[in-house]
Amino acid sequence: MNEHISLDDKLKAFIEAWDFSRLSPISVDIMLTDVAAIPVLYHWFGADPGPAPVGMAPLDVQPTELPYIQGLLDAYGEREGAAFADHNAAGAHAVHGPHLRMQRERYFDADAFTRFYRDNTTPKDTDDLRNEILHGIYETHAAKHDDILSRVNAVMIQAGNTQPAGPLAKYARTPVKQGICHHFVNEGQLKWKL
Which Pfam family is one of this chain's hits (predicted)? Predict the structure, then answer.
């Protein structure tokens, strides 16, 4: 940039006409507690952004959930020998209903985690964590399983046991690591049925 702008009469008149009474000082303490400062403090000073909020699954299934939920419906249907018409039918099932609700909690916990750290760290940090999870579950996902639901459950166990590295690892709760796997399914990086 390094452009020199001279203080001509028009610019000087604009500055002098400005109502500086609208400005007020802000203390450093206030600046440091402003949520907008978190990414800057993280980037320049390595400040810890703290833990992400816990995600909450809404009562109604969201359109963004449909790919991973369809994968779960396929798994439940294969296990039962009969297809489930939709997520409501699976949700009413004595065994698969609680399982589906748990997977939704994990999905939204991972979503809240990713959004929080995407906004308060760097995209590389969230990408690195996701890559660590993907590598941690790869062999378990690719292994032979009795059925699709066995693969899902084995991957969930392995994801929960994965110990990622990096600055976000200490905040990657078990449901977050498991929920990231459902995001992989949504994005086409994983399929439950091979």
Answer: CTD6
**Weakest-pLDDT range from 47-56, 74-83, 127-136, 158-167:** 47-56
Supply the DSSP symbol for 152. Answer: H
Question: What is the rounded distance in angstroms from the CA atom of residue 159 to the CA atom of residue 53?
Answer: 20
Tens of pLDDT along 96-108?
999 999 999 999 9
Q: What pLDDT, on the 0 to 100 scale, is given for residue 50?
A: 84
Burial of 100-111, coded b for 16+ CB within 10 Å and e otherwise, reads beebbbbbbbbb
Cα dihedral sign for 124, 130, 134, 135?
positive
Angle (nearest 5°) at CA 42 between 40 and 48: 140
d(CA 74, CA 193): 8
